[in-house]
UniProtKB/TrEMBL annotation:
Domain TonB-dependent receptor plug: residue ranges: 46-154
Keywords carried by this UniProt record: Cell outer membrane, Membrane, Signal, TonB box, Transmembrane, Transmembrane beta strand, Transport
Boundaries of every TonB-dependent receptor-like beta-barrel domain copy: 276-674
Lineage: Bacteria, Pseudomonadati, Pseudomonadota, Gammaproteobacteria, Pseudomonadales
Protein source organism: Halopseudomonas pertucinogena
The family this protein is said to belong to: Belongs to the TonB-dependent receptor family.
A Pfam family per the record: TonB_dep_Rec_b-barrel
Name the UniProt record assigns to this protein: TonB-dependent receptor
Compartment(s): Cell outer membrane
InterPro entries registered for this protein in UniProt: Beta-barrel_TonB (IPR000531), Beta-barrel_TonB_sf (IPR036942), Plug_dom (IPR012910), Plug_dom_sf (IPR037066), TonB-dep_rcpt-like (IPR039426)
The keyword Membrane belongs to this UniProt entry's keyword annotation: yes
Length: 735
């Protein structure tokens, strides 16, 4: 952290400690937890082959967070960036500021990682925070248990069982920055059937303005539906099925960049293009259905079958205006042969101000383009020179003409079908085995992104063997074999050893290898814009010159990770402590730009992380809870794009307290020394009051206030708020 961040972190911790003399009341008592997301086996945290962060329901509620990415800020080493106010980018250990390709995200075991565009759309996720029971975050590679895309870790969001609290809940939230949320749910049931139906909506205005003070159009509206039913078929069998749907609208500014300015913005054509503005909002619709069948053959043997289907679509239609030169056959062919040559023709014509054909020195332009291509190891062939001069000759023909305007879209639809069989068996008192097999079918369709439809089939075989050789020694070996139709096969092993200082205190050594498969967008893109309903000097339809093509032969990204750690639970004092020291190296990374005019995916980049993460969770009596987290990360990346979102120091400090008269408070400090070269410091506070009307009826009022201690933009220059303060009030009625 910066000096200010480190001092604030220490001061915040000290401030929390000074308050512990107050009388203890009603925070939930500490329990001995178990987790499922590490190896798929139910384990105590001291037995996990890695580090786990568990955000329980008490922490989730006390945070006051309105989005899941904001909920995950307290996780050590988790870095959150924003492309805009409605598009969050969550990365463990950072790397690229605009992409999040290396975390597997699950909701009750169902993957919500999009196969088409290699990302997680947090805004469209069909899940209300009020329905979450806990979030388990495995920090480190976990391809051995969950396959490719779990390269850096796994986030498993576990929702509440319907039988946990029967009744009705109504909640309303209002605040500045356009916050207008509501939530409604009803759950009921008996010994055999339990169900819950929830409906929710979120609204906000995103960021207030950009760096120039102009209004920033990035508001969000999301509506969600969730239905869950748990059916106890027999004493040994259960069926848990869920249906989820969401509909969202994300505002987006006009983002279609023209090829170049004909006269540095001063020609009638440039003025007409610059004056065109069209909303490019994104409409999203998601739907999923999932079923989980469990059979307990004996107390030591269980099998389960999970299957789900999901559909996601993102619709984005808008009207663009562009120079007629951008639709010329010469420029299209030039760009197809060399994107670099096409970009350098543009920079020469625009940067050197030679837009009038008589003033263009063609020999000088050829020398200019040739120099830059040699730097990138490319040859400037006679055909490229001929095409470049044809493009230059078109410039004076159109500079005083009208632009070409037409409708384009970035519509995309994705489908996934997944089935998985898992078997867990205790072979002896010292030996446990988990194994399974799964099959997944993915289909993505987009005329713009892929020129049609792309399919992929993925098969997996996985297993974990756990051997307790002695009360003080635990050995685990696991691995995943995965075959992808588009990429090929890979094997990801993991080995770990635990030495127990005491039953709830262990030192662990972990070695793991992991992979990430390139997704369809990186490997199989066929990205072109086709204008329809064209107006201007050209006919309808028209194909834009820019053409991004995936290479089709990208290999897996590969990680080797070494970890030494300690986990301890001091039961008498209510203290949990986890320390992780790690060294991770990823090779074969795809870190290059993936823009339509600059699409260069490859496996040429690498990054190495070394660091230390510490997490402390302390229940002090029944009234106070202290949570501290810190991550120190030293890294070396070959690509400049992977150096943006990694903070060397980051952390959080939380104090939660239960007061008399049904009052609870929480205070949290977040700090990071550099997120895309910007410091981040914020204090979040929450105060709530419970009002009981009857034994089963109560009203809860909560005020949440967030205050930025720094005056930086959030991730990017254009992401700015008018005030450092953000507040909202929530009223929740339960009956």
């Amino acid at each position: 952290m910066s000096g200010i961040s480190l001092r604030s972190f220490v001061a915040g911790s000290a401030l929390c400690m000074t308050a512990l003399a107050a009388p203890a009341l009603t925070l939930a008592p500490p329990e001995l937890p178990t987790v499922l997301s590490a190896t798929r086996l139910k384990q105590a945290p001291a037995e996990v082959p890695g580090s786990m962060t568990v955000l329980d329901r008490e922490l989730i509620r006390a945070s006051g967070a309105r989005s899941i990415p904001e909920l995950l800020r307290p996780v050590p080493g988790m870095h959150l960036g924003y492309r805009r106010g409605n598009q969050a980018n969550l990365n463990y250990h950072g790397t690229n500021v605009t992409e999040a390709r290396r975390l597997q995200v699950l909701v009750d075991g169902r993957s919500v990682y999009r196969s088409g565009l290699a990302t997680v759309d947090w805004a469209e996720l069909a899940l209300a925070i009020e329905d979450i029971d806990r979030i388990e975050v495995f920090r480190g590679p976990n391809t051995a248990a969950y396959g490719a895309n779990a390269l850096m870790g796994v986030i498993n969001i576990v929702t509440r069982l319907p039988l946990d609290d029967h009744g009705t809940t109504l909640s309303f939230t209002r605040g500045n920055r356009g916050v207008q949320d509501w939530y409604a749910s009803h759950s009921a049931g008996d010994l055999t059937h339990n169900w819950r139906l929830s409906l929710s909506q979120q609204r906000d205005d995103g960021f207030d303005h950009d760096q120039d003070g102009r209004d920033y159009r990035d508001g969000l509206r999301t509506t969600r539906l969730n239905l869950r039913h748990v059916w106890q078929l027999t004493d040994t069998q259960s069926l848990d099925w869920q249906i989820a749907a969401s509909e969202a609208n994300r505002q987006s500014p006009y983002e279609f960049g023209n090829y170049f300015n004909h006269a540095k913005g001063n020609s009638p054509l440039d003025e007409a293009i610059a004056g065109h503005s069209s909303n490019a909002d994104i409409s999203g619709r998601d739907f999923s259905a999932m079923g989980l069948w469990k059979l307990d053959i004996s107390p030591d043997h269980q099998i389960q079958l999970q299957a789900y289907a999901q559909h996601a679509e993102r619709l984005r239609d808008w009207r663009v205006c562009e120079s007629p030169v951008a639709f010329s056959a010469a420029l299209r062919e030039l760009n197809g042969l060399s994107e670099l040559a096409a970009r350098r023709v543009r920079s020469y014509l625009e940067g050197d101000g030679r837009q009038d054909l008589p003033a263009i020195d063609r020999a000088r332009m050829d020398a200019y383009i040739d120099r830059y291509m040699r730097r990138e190891g490319q040859a400037y062939t006679p055909r490229l020179s001929e095409l470049a001069n044809e493009v230059a000759a078109l410039v004076p023909l159109y500079r005083d003409n009208k632009p070409v305007c037409g409708n384009v879209n970035e519509n995309i639809r994705e489908n996934r079908y997944h089935i998985e069989l898992q078997n867990s068996l205790r072979l002896t008192s010292r030996l446990r085995l988990l194994n399974g097999v799964s099959y997944r079918y993915d289909r993505v369709h987009s005329d713009t992104w892929f020129g049609g439809t792309v399919d992929n089939q993925t098969s997996q075989l996985f297993g974990t063997l756990e051997y307790r050789a002695h009360p003080r020694w635990l050995f685990q070996a696991g691995g995943m074999y995965e075959y992808s139709q588009l990429v090929g096969d890979a094997f990801s092993p993991r080995l770990s050893t635990h030495f127990f200082l005491a039953p709830l205190h262990s030192i662990r050594l972990v070695y793991a290898e992991a992979v990430r498969s390139p997704d369809m967008y990186e490997n199989n893109a066929n990205w072109r814009y086709v204008l329809r309903d064209v107006s201007g000097p050209l006919d309808d339809p028209r194909i834009h010159y820019a053409w991004a093509r995936g290479p089709g032969d990208l290999d897996h990204e590969r990680m080797r990770s070494r970890e030494i750690g300690y986990h301890g639970h001091f039961h008498r004092t209510g203290l949990h402590l986890d320390i992780r020291a790690f060294q991770e190296r990823i090779t074969g990374m795809n870190s290059q730009p993936l823009k339509v005019g600059d699409f260069q995916p490859d496996n040429a980049s690498s990054i190495e992380f070394e660091g230390l993460e510490t997490e402390l969770d302390w229940h002090i009596g029944t009234a106070n809870r202290i949570r501290l987290a810190h991550a120190y990360i030293d890294f070396e990346a070959t690509s400049k794009y992977d150096q943006r979102l990694t903070a060397r120091h980051s952390g959080s400090a939380t104090w939660m307290r239960a007061w008399p008269a049904g009052i609870r408070t929480s205070l949290t400090y977040f700090g990071a020394d550099s997120l895309n070269e910007r410091r981040f410091e914020r204090v979040d506070s929450r105060i709530e009051k419970d009002l009981a009307f009857a034994p089963r009826s109560r009203l809860n009022l909560a005020l949440i206030w967030q205050y930025r201690l720094d005056d930086e933009a959030l991730t990017w220059d254009e992401n700015r708020f008018s005030s450092r303060s953000h507040y909202y009030l929530t009223a929740e009625l339960n009956f």
